[in-house]
Design a protein that fits this description.
eight-stranded mixed sheet; 14 helices; alpha/beta; globular; Rossmann fold
């Protein structure tokens, strides 16, 4: 099949939507499909490039101002979209970004009788949480996502929570749940963390890990604020924060105010091979985010065999990945005493930690990226008739 995937942020990606798009595209290409991605042109101005066997068309874009250059939204000259869809003989379009670029692809795919899958990977709160008075904006973005999805032939979502949320916003179709998936050949408990430990001068400390964008919806400040309580009981503990974003300077300042700068490491963005080592070096992974449609970083941590902790909120699917007390623990993101107590519960009990590690590895198998691609590929074949 000739497959076009639409996503505004890929290579580099700055969140789960982009990361899942990249991994799905590469896996589909590995299986012999021709895959192109329609994306936004970032600040480097590249118009067209290849990653592996995947070809990326990058269109003119507008920068989302409060993300400090992390996110762009594509605004192409409309006829160009139709021209490329025809020239590449696209059999199916998968829309992962339901903004202007997604709207144009829906419009022209329908005019060319190309089936469309709308993959909902966006929660507006991920974009607007950093602004004030965002209720109207949230509703407008949700409406755009639902309008495009209601026009699609099929709708897919990464979690049960995402399916429920879409229905609450009047999605007319019954969405199909397909996990973002994780490549357990790349992320596993056999990774040697020596290079990562050497780079960041880590030895035998207790390592608490966070991976993600440094934006307010990720709630990293609450994790930092919890650290003095943890360090008081376990002084030989460090918090490693992997990622970049508008809040980085503010979070570093907070670490200094809390007098935990010696126990805090900000790595910035790191390459995937070093990221895998970061997981392998860690004792526990904590995701304090209040907004998640699934939580790819949790899947990565589970695959690497470490206990996971996630905030339990009404706007997050993250707790779906946790079997309480088995592979991890959930917590109230606004209660630092509770979070500290649960972190210490794992770090001070090797038997519990080892049990959770094994359970993480077992549970993540159901989220294998191969299983996710099997489901996606099967759906594409049914819609195109190319079985």
């Amino acid at each position: 099949m000739n497959i076009c995937i639409v996503c505004d942020d890929v290579f580099p990606s700055h969140g789960g939507r982009g990361k899942s798009t990249e991994r799905w595209a590469l896996k589909l290409a590995e299986r012999g499909h021709k895959v192109i991605i329609f994306s936004a042109r970032n600040k480097k101005g590249i118009k067209r490039n290849h990653v592996g066997k995947v070809e990326i068309y990058r269109f003119s874009a507008l920068k989302v101002p409060w993300t400090k250059g992390m996110l762009y939204i594509g605004f192409p000259y409309p006829p160009n979209v139709r021209t490329i869809l025809k020239r590449e003989k696209i059999d199916i379009v998968i829309i992962n970004s339901q903004y202007y670029l997604g709207f144009l692809n829906m419009l022209y795919a329908k005019s060319l009788n190309i089936p469309v899958i709308s993959a909902i990977h966006t929660q507006p709160e991920n974009i607007t949480k950093n602004l004030r008075g965002t209720t109207i904006i949230d509703k407008a973005i949700y409406q755009a996502i639902i309008n495009i999805s209601n026009s699609a032939d099929r709708v897919i979502v990464p979690s049960k929570f995402a399916a429920k949320l879409a229905k609450e916003y009047e999605l007319e179709k019954n969405p199909i749940v397909i996990s973002n998936g994780i490549d357990i050949k790349k992320f596993n408990n056999r990774i040697n963390p020596a290079q990562f430990k050497r780079k960041y001068k880590l030895k035998n400390e207790n390592i608490i890990l966070f991976v993600g964008r440094l934006m307010s919806e990720k709630n990293v400040a609450s994790l930092l604020s919890t650290m003095p309580l943890v360090i008081k009981q376990l002084p030989n503990t460090k918090l490693v924060i992997v990622g970049d974003g508008p809040q980085k300077t503010e979070l570093k300042k907070l670490a200094k105010e809390l007098k935990i700068q010696k126990n805090s490491i900000f790595t910035g963005r790191i390459k995937e091979d070093l990221l895998r080592q970061a997981y392998a070096a860690s004792d526990i992974f904590v995701l304090p985010s209040i907004v998640e449609l699934q939580g790819i970083v949790l899947l990565e941590a589970m695959a690497c065999g470490i206990p996971i902790m996630a905030a339990k909120t009404k706007t997050s699917a993250a707790s779906e990945l946790i079997k309480e007390g088995k592979n991890g623990l959930t917590f109230n993101p606004y209660n630092k005493k509770e979070l500290a107590k649960k972190i210490l519960k794992i770090l001070t009990n090797k038997q519990l930690k080892d049990k959770m590690s094994k359970q993480s590895i077992n549970k993540v198998k159901e989220h294998s990226i191969e299983k996710s691609i099997d489901k996606l590929e099967s759906l594409c074949k049914r819609l195109t008739g190319k079985c």
